[in-house]
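Collaborator request log, item 7. Partner lab (contact: R.S.) asked for a structural prediction of Failed axon connections homolog, metaxin like GST domain containing to inform their binding assays.
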Amino acid sequence: KKRGKNMEDLPFHHFKITFQKLPSNYFGGKLSAQGKMPWIEYNHEKVSGTEFIIDFLEEKLGVNLNKNLGPHERAISRAVTKMVEEHFYWTLAYCQWVDNLNETRKMLSLSGGGPFSNLLRWVVCHITKGIVKREMHGHGIGRFSEEEIYMLMEKDMRSLAGLLGDKKYIMGPKLSTLDATVFGHLAQAMWTLPGTRPERLIKGELINLAMYCERIRRKFWPEWHHDDDNTIYESEESSEGSKTHTPLLDFSFYSRTETFEDEGAENSFSRTPDTDFTGHSLFDSDVDMDDYTDHEQCK
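Returned to partner:
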């Protein structure tokens, strides 16, 4: 309640959710009644599972990130979401908890590791490895060899890169719930799997996925950016000895959209890689790209 009123009776722009301040990467170990994460509690009502949580919040708060998508686009969005959640997820889990367990344990140690001591963290990591292997076997994907699992991962990542293309977000110039799903998974390859095959792929051949992750990170988590960022560029010609840790340049966050298809000498306006014809930054997810089309038609 707020000022004696029920929160659901307040206009949306007056609604604010506050979170308890917890250490970075804190995990208290509490799961939902189904033994799953994520889960939320809203006005004493508990909901678990990403899809059900999104549906619940859309109904309660009257917001919908997919309002600009038509039926066909919504169908594509759901299909890609399931590919990421039910297939790509397991290949990432294998990379993190099976193939690179020691690096994962070191990363947890550097981040504080929540309430776990060093010994308990070692035990939890190895227990998690066993759980992941068992669940992957039940899923079916764990019955393949290491090379085959990474081959499936690469196919999923190439599919995402192809679908994104040179657009700002997966489904176009506007953010959708699909972007939340895709970013949540690709972020692991970007920042939690150093030196692994998915990291080399996303920061090398599939650089549009790296730029996509950086756009979202800088837009919604500006405090997450560090000067000692180890994000690197890697071209097809790069050799192992020539790879250097260089921050992504600002112009790399520029993304073309379908409204930028027609280019030519007849364009009388000028723009930098990170702005549109009005001078607005393409870094802003609220830029109305339809204005550009209208501008072109009126020329």
